[in-house]
Every structure is written in C-alpha cells, then in structure tokens.
Amino acid sequence: MMGRIISIVVVALVPIVFAGSPLHAAKGDPEKGREIYMKRCWWCHGEEGAADGPAAEFMLPPPRDFTEGVYKFKSTPFDELIPSDEDFFNMIKGGLMKEHVAGWNGMNNTSMPGWEDMLKDDEIWHLVAYIKSIVEYEQPEQGPISVGNKVASSEDSIEKGRKIFREMCAECHGEEGRGDGTKMLKDDWGYRTWPRNLTKPWTFRMTDTVEDIYTRITVGIPGTQMPSFADPESKKRLNDEERWHVANYVVSIAAPYKKPDENTVIKALRIEEEVPDNPSSPVWEKAEYTSFWLVPQMIAKERHFKPSLDSVSVKVVYNDKEIAFLLEWDDRTKSVPGDAKAEEIAAGEVFRDGVAIQLPVVVPEGSEKPYFAMGDKAKPVSVWFWQSETTTEPQRLKLLEGKGFDKIEERDPSAIGLTARGVYDHGTWRVVMKRPLFTKEKDKDIQFVEGKFIPVAFAAWDGSNGEKGSKHELTTWYWLLLKPPVGASIYIVPIAVAVVVLVGELLLLRRFRKD
Amino acid sequence: MRLLQFVIWVIISYLFFKLPGILMGKPIPSSLILMYMFFAVVMILLVMTSTEKSTRELLAPIKSMLEDPSKKLIRNVVFVIVPIVAGVITYEQIKPTYEAPVELRSTHPAPPSTIKIYGKTYDLLALENPYRKYEKEDPEKFKELVREGGEVYFKHCFYCHGDKLDGKGHYGQGFNPLPLPFQGKDTIAQLQESYVFWRIATGGPGLPKESTPWLSAMPIWEDFITEEEIWKVILFIYDYTGNVPRSWE
C-alpha cells in the first residue's frame, strides 16, 4: 500500500521536476502532434510546414517556415540553432504577457495566437514533438542563457544604456527607438521586416520584461537582422553588463499613452488663448492624448492586409471661435515621393504619407450614424485629408464629402477656413488640422457644439508601404466631446447638501435635549 | 448592538450586489447598485423596526449618543463626518463623467424573409445548405468540402474572427462591435444556416436598423466570394467549433 502511494507521488512529481527537460518532449508524440497540426496549424504554416498555407499571403510577418528549422524567439545562445523545449512550448502556448492587448495572447501584433485556451499542455507537447521532427531536431547542445546577473535599473544604468543604444541600435531602431531606422531590412526568407518600435512594448512578440529584452539582445532574433550582441566575432559585441544597461534603457522608453485603452471619448479642452495651428505649440501640453487602434482597410475593394501603422493618438482643443486636432502617429518612414533615400527603404513605389479625420456632416440626434467607412447615401461624412510633401510639391489638404466608398466628392478646404500642417520627427508624424467651429453652410459642414457627443473616426496612410487610395489603416467610430467648462455648481450643490445635513443633525440634537 | 447588526446587513447586501459583478468582470453599473441598495436598506429597516421594542433597540445607541454628555466627543466626530460623507456622495453623483453614450444593438435581429443577391432572389425560409446532405450521404466528400470552406475562412475571415474562431483575430480589437466568435453556444449555434448565409452575403450594411448596420465592420461578402464558397465556409465554421446549426422546428 505504502509503496503504491509513494509511486503515485513520484509519478505525479515527474512532470514538475522535469519540466522543460528532455524527458518532456520525449513525452510528446509526433504522430499525435501531426493530427492536431492538420486541424489547427496548417492553414498558416502549410501542410508540410513550409509556411504556404492558404492564409500565409495575408499576413506580415508571415507564418514560420518549419522546414528551415530557424526559430526567432528562443533562449539558447546565438551559436545554438535549436531552441529549448521550453521555448517551443512557450511559442505555441502563448499567454506570457500579463497585461496584453485583448485578443493578443500569443505573439503580439502578429497573426500567431496563443493556444493556451484551446489546447491542453500535453497536446502542445505533441505539437512540439511534431514540429521538431520536421527537421529532425534533437535536444540543443547548449541550454538557455542565464539571466542571473541582472543589473538593477537605475538612472545611471539607463544613461549608460542610452549611449550604447545610440551607438549600437539606433541605425535600425531609430534615435528615439521608434523603429525609424535608416536601412531596408529583409529576413532570411526575403520578407520585409520592420525593426520593433521600442516605445510600444505591448507589440513585443515575447514579453516586455527586462529579462526577455536582455535575452533578445543576447541571443538575437534568428532569421532576421536583429543580431546577437554576445557574439565575440561581431563588431557589435557588448559585454554582459552593457547588455543589461541597454535592456534597462529599452524598458525606460516605453510610451504608455500610445496604447489604446477602453476610453472611446476624446475630451476636447476649452482654452482661452489662440487655437494653435502647429504641432509644436506649448498649448498642446495642456490637453491629454486619447489613442485608438488603426486596423487595415479590409472591408471594401482594394483591401489591405499588411499594414505598417497600428495606432493614432489624438488631442483636441478649442476656444470660442476655432477647433484644432493634433494627430500623432508613429510611422517608421517619412515617405517623400521622388526622394532617392525614401525610395531606397520603401517596399516599392513611394506615395505620400497621409492622415484623415472623418466626421458626420450632420451630428446625429439619435443613435443612427453614417456608415463608419466613408459614410452612406442618406448620411454623408466630411473627411479632412492631409498628405505629406513630395520633392516638388508641398503638403496638401483635401476636403472630401463621402457618401460611400465610391461616392466621394472634393471641395475647397479654404472656403470653410480649414488648414493643416504636419511635422515629421524621428519616426513620428504630428499633424494639426484647424477650422472655425461654425461655417456658413450648416447642411454641408459639421458645426461644433459644446456638450454634444460627436462621432469621429480616423484613417492613415504610410506611403512607403504601398498605401494609397483604399489601401490604408482606419479606425471605427469613436466620440469627440467639446467639454464645456464645468460651472461652480458641481461644488456648490455638495456643499449645500452637507450644510442641510448638518442643520438636520443640530435640529435632531435640540429635540433630544428638550425631551 | 441592533445598530451594528443593521450596519452589517447593509454591508452584506452591498457586497451581494457588487462582488459577483467584479468577480465575473462585468460589474453592475453603480447607478443600478444605488437603486438596489435603496430598496435593500428600506427592507432591512422595515424588518428591524417591525416591533416597538426592536425599533427602540435599533435607535438606542443613537439616542444615547445624543443624550449622554459623556459621549460628547463621539457625537461631535459623527456630526462632522456625516455631512462630509453626504457632500462627497453628492459630488460623486453629479460630477460630469463624459462617458460615451451607450449604443444598444440587437446581435441577432429577425432576418428578412427574402434577400436579393448574386442577381437572384432567395427565400430565406426555404433556403438550405446544398452541401449539408453529404454529411450523411458521402462523408469523404463532406470532409473535402469542409476543408475547402476552411481555405475560404483562412483567406477572408481569420484576421477578424480569429485563427481559433474565437472572435479575437489580429485586428479584431480595432472594431466596435467586436467580430463575433463562432466558438461557444451564443452565436452560430443559435442560428439556422440560411440565417448565417444571409449575414455573410450581406454583411454589416445588410443588417436592419436595430442592429446598427453603420457600425458593423463585417464586409459584404457577396462582393468577394461566390455563393458556393459561402456555403462551404458555413460548413467549416460549424465543423471547427463542433456546433450544429439550428434546424427547422
């Protein structure tokens, strides 16, 4: 009896003790893995793992080609081709990022989902065994790198990291880390790769912890141009301490305000001074950003599947005469048609960059809005469409009236006092569009009234990513509210209530005293 | 002691309304809770003051606080705190929140009886999936059709409805309403195939007003894929999720 209990305990402990060790993968059965693969994975990764499934051409980055045996997110050293079993397991299981974006529980900002909610752990081990069997991988000779000598983050460490970053990383990741490098990068399979925008850690494939960032810097991202900085042969070698400093620096440049959240309302701020017509005006510092997801236009022809822009952040201010929008979004490339340098790093022909604000022509009284993509016949939309300069022409602004995708009319923006100006700086566009609150033709242009919830949507174009016309990113309808200044009454009423209660108390007291 | 009991009951009922919402991640709106609490407090008071004696017991501590000179300090403290609390609650109630207007929409509206697509008129009441019969008649052929449906799905639908058909595609989070999941029992498991056919062929703009067609990002698939492809992708989304279409009762 005792013997049986002991053996049960031992058997139960095995998976815990040996988690991540060779024994585990041996547990996985490649045959069973293949079965699951043919139900869940081949659609992207292909029947034989060659990344040629029916879905493959509709995404960037493309699915991994398992016949090559090159894996991006592994923890074994740079000169060890084979990831650890634990790495494989995590690639498939996902769910590593604690505060991930809703829906992104695998490799963030790619089409590779995490499977933890659909597959049991042993099924994942079967998949690991199958995927490894495609290239007949055994165990790696070298185990995972150590993250034991972590250098705690401090001002000093971050400052050292900043210097290293400028020297070692900026050529790809940009001076400010926004991925606005100066090179055209392709991976080993010939696909365009964009260096990560390091100010948006929620888009990191693995997690945004300093350990994971350190691991990437140390191991590199195989198959891409993200190198290992631990390779003694390389000119780009950093010692262990330096790698921690630069990892600390990367953590420090996160810009959380760019991450869209639940908030769907842009609160326009009422100001006393002039409404600014340029992005660098100090007035903007008073207002707060609201950020929204940009998603590719996949609804009407011509559809767009490989976007390069993922969010836009907006501020709005107004006074008694005018209203101005500040649109800020990270774009890795300043697209200047005709410019040799811009053409060099673009994915094909270069078009102008652009951004647009969409508003209903008439603010709806009920819940019924115009169709969110370019309006409809019954309910048209106004689109303020700004585009960047070319080598020969300046920036331009169009005023469009949309009654559906293919029913777009152009009008003269200056007739209603609409102006725009954009500035590009280190991977970020900032564009200001400004207009009087009211116009003459009330049935043709929106009139901005305080206190009303006004539907608003946005669109953006990256001209270096082949984006032009219907190929662009867009948002769904959100809200704009010209926040009227709050009157004193919201303070007076509570005070009055408090006084009434106090008087009540005193009356009560008097009655009891009398009794 | 009665007073303490009263306070405890009020706290318990508050937690009763509040906790399940928090645990399930779907909190009840505070305005509703306020209303429930009002009734709860009235109920508790009614019960606790049902007899003369119990009323007296309930109020005894208050009475003694007001009358007993030795409790002067407590009284003064209470007299200051109560008005402040009242003021703060009032402020919380009236301060502007700028919350977006709620947009109610019906997820599964009544379908039209006929639709005109692909240059033909379809009677939705009589419409059936022409491939469904092979499930019994020719399982091999059926499997092939499901697979072809899967290819349609993984060219046209996964980036919104998800690789796992869970509504969480790469770009799903950018839409409002969110793309619907096909997993689970709330969506296609409730629907007949003809209904699903209508939804896919006519997309968001094909919805009636109560379902806010102007918000839905669901494309009009008549413009992109064939009738046969729609029927096949329907086979696939039921097969993958293990759901069964609702049949005519």
Characterization of the model:
The complex is a heterodimer of chains A (515) and B (249). By secondary structure, chain A is α+β, with helices and mostly antiparallel strands. Chain A folds into four domains: 144 residues, Cytochrome Bc1 Complex, Chain D, domain 2 (Orthogonal Bundle), CATH 1.10.760.10; 104 residues, Orthogonal Bundle (Cytochrome Bc1 Complex, Chain D, domain 2); 226 residues, Immunoglobulin-like, CATH 2.60.40.1190; 26 residues. Chain A has twelve helices and 14 strands. In chain A, strands 1, 2, 3, 4, 5, 6, 7, 8, 9, 10, 11, 12, 13 and 14 form a 14-stranded mixed sheet that branches. In chain A, strand 4 and strand 5 form a beta hairpin. In chain A, helix 3 packs across helix 6. The longest helix of chain A is centred in the C-terminal third of the chain and has 26 residues. Chain A is globular. Chain B is mainly alpha-helical and 249 residues long. Chain B has two domains: 93 residues, no CATH class; 128 residues, Cytochrome Bc1 Complex, Chain D, domain 2 (Orthogonal Bundle). Chain B contains nine helices and two strands; from the N terminus they run ααααββααααα. In chain B, strands 1-2 form a two-stranded antiparallel ribbon. In chain B, strand 1 and strand 2 form a beta hairpin. The radius of gyration of chain B is 29 Å and the shape is elongated. The N and C termini of chain B lie far apart (61 Å). Chains A and B meet through strand 3 and helix 12 of A and helix 3, helix 4, helix 6 and helix 7 of B.
Please state the structural category of chain B. Answer: mainly alpha
* Radius of gyration of chain A using CA atoms only: 28 Å
Q: Helices and strands of chain B, in N-to-C order? A: HHHHEEHHHHH
CATH class of the largest domain in chain B: Mainly Alpha
Order of helices and strands of chain A: HHHHHHHHHHEEEEEHEEEEEEEEEH
Q: In percent, how helical is the residue content of chain A?
A: 25-40%
Looking at this protein, list some descriptive labels.
heterodimer; A: 515 residues; alpha+beta; Cytochrome Bc1 Complex, Chain D, domain 2; Immunoglobulin-like; 4 domains; 14-stranded mixed beta sheet; 12 helices; 14 strands; 17% strand; B: 249 residues; mainly alpha; two-stranded antiparallel ribbon; 9 helices; 2 strands; 53% helix; elongated
